[in-house]
Fold this sequence. Notes:
The protein contains 13 helices and ten strands. It is of the alpha/beta class and 266 residues long. The protein has two domains: 6-204, Alpha-Beta Complex (2-enoyl-CoA Hydratase, Chain A, domain 1); 224-265, no CATH class. A six-stranded mixed β-sheet has the order 1-2-3-5-7-10, sandwiched between helices.
Amino acid sequence: MSEPLALVEKTDGIAVVTLNRPEAMNALSRALVSSISRAFSELAKDAETGVVILTGAGRAFCAGLDLKELSAQGIPGGESDPSTPLGSDTLDMIDIIHGFDRPIIGAINGVAITGGFELALACDFLIASAEARFADTHARVGVLPGWGLSQKLSRMIGIGRAKELAFTGNYLSAEQALAWGLVNRVVAPDELLPVCRSLAADILSCVPGMVSHYKRVIDQGYGMTFAEGLRMEREASREHAGKLTAEFIATRTRGVQERGRKQTKD
């Protein structure tokens, strides 16, 4: 029996989802897209999973849509697609990932190209191997992005830098991605998953359920004006504060202080 196209490994509240088409540089075939969608749909139902790490098997994170499959069958849902509808799990993969209410760390182990770049940007933040590279080749292939790249990237690294990548299709190295603010850290390849697991453990040490609530506030405000975001945050804060007790705040404050003292010593 062959291995799943999206492997899921769960340990201590952390789920590692690994794209598992290394022979094809984890290119997004219909089957892989469906497998990713199912994996996140199932993890959304798993109360024990608090953080997801998304990565790729082999030397690539994801080389984008499977061009061989596209050449034969057309873009999913497009006019040239002769197949019947693939189902909402396939067509809405990015929506399913965006709807996941817990943090997703992108562990970018190798190239993240075009659709793979968009998949990386669906994560909450990115940690890159020194071997990671990013490229937006939509213009070279002759298609427009549909999973958010044209809007997200300019907000993350600036419109001029985003246009440079979009219009040239040139590769962006891990170190340049760090300098431009696309990734949070660049680490040695063998340190990538350990570093991501360590960050995931830090996330899990926060108040249960609080990170999901905080993520929702950040994501909702991302598409608002600054003034709208401030109003939304204020309303959310007041609603949440009304549920807190003095004893709870005192207990959590002591925990934060103890952790701060330990980190200062380290």
